[in-house]
């Protein structure tokens, strides 16, 4: 397994990872995520150009990706997805560690993200990787606004939470 910054030629292949990863939500309260449109290239291209998009690769095949950006005092993980056939093999952890290394080197105080608090492979996995669920009063303004936006946008939005991992 190799984790590296995404290259321009990787971008068209990221949608297939996102679609595959979404299938895991079928039959859950987040079933809608399986039918969500993948992230548009117009969002991935600037992230790739800024060095805020990583891919995990196995024998030349893309297995996962992580898309992040600065938010307040942290590097915010906008999305981390691993294709179904590669889940449970450490790709997500490796992508998060690559983002943590980048954030640390860039002087960020933490990694942050928003996720579902109920799905067994979301919040518990992030907690295992050192993230802590934040109460509303513990969030930075930008993170609070992001979570509030998601809670209004997504079905089953009451299940959303924000998490932080100090670096």
TrEMBL record:
Record bears the keyword Transferase: yes
Listed Pfam families: Acetyltransf_1
Lineage top rank: taxon: Bacteria
InterPro entries assigned: Acyl_CoA_acyltransferase, GNAT_dom
Listed GO MF terms: acyltransferase activity
Matching Gene3D superfamilies: 3.40.630.30
Protein name: GNAT family N-acetyltransferase
Enzyme class: transferase
CDD domains xrefs: NAT_SF
Sorted UniProt keywords: Acyltransferase, Transferase
EC code(s) of this entry: 2.3.-.-
Domain N-acetyltransferase: 1-150
């Amino acid at each position: 397994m190799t984790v590296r910054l995404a290259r321009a030629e990787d971008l068209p292949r990221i949608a297939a990872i996102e679609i595959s990863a979404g299938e895991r939500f079928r039959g859950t309260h987040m079933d809608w995520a399986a039918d969500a449109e993948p992230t548009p290239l117009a969002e991935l291209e600037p992230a790739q150009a800024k060095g805020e998009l990583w891919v995990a690769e196995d024998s030349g095949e893309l297995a996962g990706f992580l898309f992040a950006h600065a938010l307040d005092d942290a590097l915010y993980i906008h999305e981390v997805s691993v294709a179904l056939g590669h889940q449970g093999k450490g790709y997500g952890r490796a992508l998060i560690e690559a983002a943590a290394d980048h954030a640390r080197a860039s002087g960020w105080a933490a990694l942050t993200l928003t996720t579902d608090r109920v799905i067994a492979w979301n919040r518990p996995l992030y907690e295992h990787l050192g993230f802590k669920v934040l109460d509303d009063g513990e969030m930075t303004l930008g993170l609070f606004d992001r979570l509030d936006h998601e809670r209004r946008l997504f079905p089953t939005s009451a299940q959303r939470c924000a998490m932080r991992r100090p670096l």
